[in-house]
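Internal tracking record. Fields below are filled automatically when a chain is submitted to the structure queue. Please do not edit lines marked as system-generated. If the sequence contains nonstandard residues, flag them in the REMARKS field before resubmitting.
Queue: standard
Priority: normal
Entity type: single polypeptide chain
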Amino acid sequence: MKIGVIGGGAFGTALGVALALDGHDIWLWARNADAAQRMESERVNPKLPGVTLPKNMSIYGVLEPLFACDTLLLAIPAQTLPAFLQTHAAQLGGKYLVACCKGIDLTRMTGPASTIRDLVPDAVPAMLTGPSFAADIARGLPTALTLACADDAHGEILQTALSTTSIRLYRTNDTVGAELGGALKNVMAIASGIAIGANYGESARAALITRGYPEMQRLAHVLGAQPDTLAGLCGFGDLVLTCTSDQSRNYRYGLALGRGEAFDPTTTVEGVATARAVRQLAKDRGIDMPICNVVADLTDGKTDVPAALNALLSRPLKEE
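SYSTEM-GENERATED OUTPUT FOLLOWS
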């Protein structure tokens, strides 16, 4: 199986490195042609300091060579995924398309695997998600992830092809649950970062993680996810990791928001758009999602941190 990676950021490159070190020939596309040329010649990606790119990993600034691959890992932001799929649908048909991004598209209100299914109907959509940081994967540290594919037979093929000596993949056919777990935990990571950044303390963060988890489950249930999916790596596992580590971009964004500091506008923070999408979905479906709602309002500038805290603490008392 020929494997290509669409997206030369830290996570896409890290996945490529892990697969190449396991013996696969990897083709990687980086959007910036100059950056791709430097990566190819210097064998480093500045976003992964200290990591040498294996010789059997080829980096391109043009897409055409990657269309010869049987399997493409789509490591591009969730909000740009639909445009990429629509532009290249003719070349992507019949391939395994594995989404490696986490979010809910603001226009379509769908997760990455569902977006692939809708826009490239003759491809095999899948989702690779779970608790993982690019630096850990690139360094060969042990990582366990969820591989979601609605078709069990195709899922088994991908599970075998994409597992490595350091990455253990657990398979599910619940693509909806997998994509929602990965998307919603980003919103909770922003909330957790806000709590720490605003000096509300570790107890407040623990409360947000604990109360945020049933919010995730409520929306996933309404949208058709299997009941146990979010209890696994793609939900609870990813939630714990991103809410407690400053390696998470969403958590760091929340920290800056809680401190009243500016955040690097060039850094992709998937949880911002996802919070807005979830706010709309919750309103349309009549689902109670207070943490997601206040995160969306905070990122939109509709409220401030003290008012958001008051909104959560002043809710009616109830049983757990």
